[in-house]
């Protein structure tokens, strides 16, 4: 049964034996059960917007890249009229026209078809970048009714662009990308998302379910133990958010410390984030912030830090613009378009942001207990000084010391958590209703897709996930 053609009036939705009943309790088998994984492949992935490529990977007319996920391969190509996407199969006997190796090795096939088009490696049939069949070898050998022009055209895949990326959806009737993801797109775009360029792109295969990998970044509650260097650099921030016995957020600075001490904590934290994640806090931003290490500030610690961050944001905006970078006005954008430290674009893409640069992550399933995990470091460059596009990922073992420190620390947990999920007696995972709500909200939205909920209701639930990092369990109104 094709999920894109599912008709709730004619067919009953599939039975989901691992459906979430209590939002704070997630059945452990959802992370390894093969039947549940098949439900995701059949009901979730064909109906959601997937980040297929960065547009800088296909800068010229005719440039293409293959995107594959859960057995479906798509060609994303830049044509004279914009970005198009085609199902990656020859209309003769189904051989992939481009790439066709899937994503198991972490590599994306790419090239340019402006001169030769797409040529089937089996019998030499050809298609142009628009998807029109331009050559059938031995045409006289076929009955003419088998060679109808429309039938031979490559099957289109719905594609939309946003934030410097192309997103595809196999369901032509699904709500649009903007309808599905909502105002978080505007908030991120206000930070210059579409103008960012890749510095580097790493990939690895993790021996874990794709949701385990995603959920490792859905809360900051793990920082104290997993990233102790961040906790030690700025303990007042993390302790007030996660360790306060009163349950409140508490101050974001140490009220007993001087403004100078709080500034030093903040700078040390930025240095660690920069060294550990690159794009999250870029080195050029830390360099500018360091100029204000000894700034004169009000005595009140909270007022002092607000003043200091304002000075730093103004200076980053001014100095990067003077270098020719088209960065947003940070003070204005932080006031008018606030975002969380991590913003998720359901189901498999998320962004980490602080000042003007970002880190972005994409995770694709390779099976019930394996996934492809990719990280980009994104920043601005002066016009005309952009680097050559990063067209291929650097694939590393997940335990490679070449990864930045922060993902390396996360990778130390994810594979062993996957093993622990098989432990006898571990039936459910228990979530904090206040800080781990995004995990529950994500999982219950997946259940909505499996159940065949109406597209507008799914989109409305999806929009609630914007800004939900470290957030509470929500009523998604999918019942």
TrEMBL record:
Keywords: 2Fe-2S, Dioxygenase, Iron, Iron-sulfur, Metal-binding, Oxidoreductase, Plasmid
Every Rieske domain range: 49-168
Signal sequence annotation: none
The keyword Metal-binding appears for this protein: yes
Domain of life: Bacteria
UniProt-listed InterPro entries: Rieske_2Fe-2S (IPR017941), Rieske_2Fe-2S_sf (IPR036922), Ring_hydroxy_dOase_asu_C_dom (IPR015879), Rng_hydr_dOase-A (IPR001663)
UniProt GO MF annotations: 2 iron, 2 sulfur cluster binding; dioxygenase activity; iron ion binding
Cofactor(s), by name: Fe cation
Pfam family, one: Ring_hydroxyl_A
PANTHER family xrefs: CHOLINE MONOOXYGENASE, CHLOROPLASTIC
Protein known as: Aromatic ring-hydroxylating dioxygenase subunit alpha
